[in-house]
Amino acid sequence: MNTSRKRKRIFRPSYYSSQSSTYLFSVRSFVLSFSFFIFLYLISYTIPFSSLAFRPVLVISSLASSSSNIAKRIQEFDGFITFPWKIENRVLFPDHVLLLVSSLKKDGLIKKSAKELECVYYGKTVLEGNSNGSSGERDPSILVKQNVLSVDEYDECRSIVRCPLPSMNYSSVVNLGRRGKSGVLEEDTGSLMNIQTVHSWENVVYAASLDGNTAVVFVKGLNLRSDRESNPRKFSCHFGLGNRKIDGRFMLRTKALTAAQEVVRCSLPRSVQANPDKAGGIRVTVGIITYGRSRIQEHVLVPSVAKISSFKSEEKKKSEGKYVLCACTMVWNQASALREWIMYHAWLGVERWFIYDNNGDDGIEEVIQELDLEGYNVTRHVWPWIKMQEAGFSHCVLRAKDECNWVSFMDVDEFFYFPYSKPRHKRFRKFGYAGQNSLRTLVANISSSSRSIAEIRTSCHSFGPSGLNSPPSQGVTGGYTCRLQSPERHKSIIRPDALDNTLLNVVHHFHLRKGFKYLNLHQSTAVINHYKYQVWEVFRAKFYRRVATYVADWQQNQNEGSRDRVPGLGTEAIEPPDWPIKFCEFGTTD
Ligand SMILES: *[C@@H]1O[C@H](CO)[C@@H](O)[C@H](O)[C@H]1NC(C)=O
Ligand SMILES: *[C@@H]1O[C@H](CO)[C@@H](O)[C@H](O)[C@H]1NC(C)=O
Ligand SMILES: *[C@@H]1O[C@H](CO)[C@@H](O)[C@H](O)[C@H]1NC(C)=O
Ligand SMILES: *[C@@H]1O[C@H](CO)[C@@H](O)[C@H](O)[C@H]1NC(C)=O
């Protein structure tokens, strides 16, 4: 153990509590005078340094790769006391580099500083010569800066910063700097070998959540079969309790209990089980078990950026009892659709929304804040993982579990509809529910009539552009009036406590535990109006990005002719001449 580690531990409490300001002051003056001493030492090397007002981790270029211990220790020391963030991990996506940055303060400062931040790239040395971006020598004399793409809150302890991909001769080990300053925030590896890495999005453990006595771990790159349970004995789980990554990165090993698609459920190490409240923040990864030459088990660990998060519902909510009906959805740039969707379903009785934001940049945050201020219980959750809708839904189940008895999984272009809700339809009504809170009452009633029903399936009618050329000003539910005759697919409202342990789901359908069953709602009771084929300017977005894992993007020449694709559309976003009148078989002017 090196000394800087101990020192951090001593200083941490004062940093967090911040009320012991006199203590902090003395620490600070100590640091300042110490820094000044080091400054004198360093200035003889004519090294770039930054003003004390900013105080970033000093990147001492010409010393960075040498092993001048004293300089290194001061870097860390100074960095910890004065710099409010550290880069924990980087993930290389096809179109950006994602940085996970932990805040050493509680108030999510980094978002406020977004405008000041910039991404810093180093030239790759000839030595490194690989483009897969992993650690390597870099040439600190070649350095470029670019604006960050976006900054966002991620989880309890981390923010994300997105940086543009580095250009050809630059390393994807991106760091952060502040505009107009020479200091650079680097990954705090806490080790003397300052190895910096970037993980490939193709193979990485990216999230983990606490669920009772287990941790549910989300893994990209296992390539397990869709809609099937896989053999958990092929995997192991590995936990890293320490704060640092150096020795014994993942010391504790446990069994994988289930594995399916991208989700592995792990037992917790015994020491953590005894105290699950303390599980938050523990690093976790999954091992793939292989057998060596002499049948010796080997665990090939998947690189990980995941820390266990635990969703503690507010005490207030616990005492009030759970919501009857909540909704989870995943969106990508659908901010404009959100208000109508939420207000409509609030009227039908949905009480709580979880919006998983999959890399949108259309200001959905403001829409959600407004709705929240108006009394809708809606929260946004950043889900930066591309094409991971199914995993995101499993994640949302865990989040909703403590708060909700039932959760509806649907898209923001889908609206529950009670066809016989007009007074003149009274005689058709099976259940006496129309009007306000219809959906909640229906769900509550089904719930109380049978404890074994854990999924309510509702058929979806697909609406066409209904002759329109621009988005209807009265909203989608009023504007689109013509649909296909027969329903396509159905969507589910589920009981989170009755799902199979795998949390397996495909196309919004979850596998239920043994002993639970689903109920098909009769179409005369309720249907979902799915505004699937809207006016072209809305529809064409589907060409650029699909959020589901097992759905090919439409620009790829895969799955052509599958049910997921639209009949008559190829791989290009070109409006068919008859688009406005397509998909119109049945008018609904009711
Ligand atoms: C980069 O990729 C090549 C093969 O594509 C591999 O052999 C090499 O080990 C990788 N380098 C690093 C540092 O991961
Ligand atoms: C990258 O570096 C090589 C060798 O140093 C050089 O020949 C090439 O022009 C550089 N490419 C770019 C895009 O800067
Ligand atoms: C939000 O939640 C509270 C209880 O926590 C509930 O009383 C209220 O009706 C909910 N708001 C909406 C619009 O459903
Ligand atoms: C639920 O619906 C049934 C009709 O299917 C009705 O008899 C019953 O009273 C309803 N229960 C509640 C609690 O509303």
Task: Please characterize this protein's 3D structure.
It is a single chain. With 590 residues, the protein is of the alpha+beta class. It has three domains: 3-200, no CATH class; 204-309, Immunoglobulin-like (Sandwich); 322-587, Spore Coat Polysaccharide Biosynthesis Protein SpsA, Chain A (Alpha-Beta Complex). The strands form six sheets. Strands 18, 19, 20, 21, 22, 23, 25, 28 and 29 form a nine-stranded mixed beta sheet that branches. It has an eight-stranded mixed beta sheet with strand order 16-15-12-13-14-11-10-17, with helices on one face. Strands 5-6-2-1-9 form a five-stranded mixed beta sheet. A hairpin with a 5-residue loop joins strand 15 and strand 16. The protein binds 2-acetamido-2-deoxy-beta-D-glucopyranose (NAG) (4 copies). One 2-acetamido-2-deoxy-beta-D-glucopyranose binds next to loops. One of its GO terms (cellular component) is cytoplasm. Belongs to the glycosyltransferase 92 family.
What are the salient characteristics of this protein?
alpha+beta; disordered N terminus; eight-stranded mixed β-sheet; binds 2-acetamido-2-deoxy-beta-D-glucopyranose; nine-stranded mixed β-sheet; Spore Coat Polysaccharide Biosynthesis Protein SpsA, Chain A; 14 helices; 590 residues; Immunoglobulin-like; 3 domains
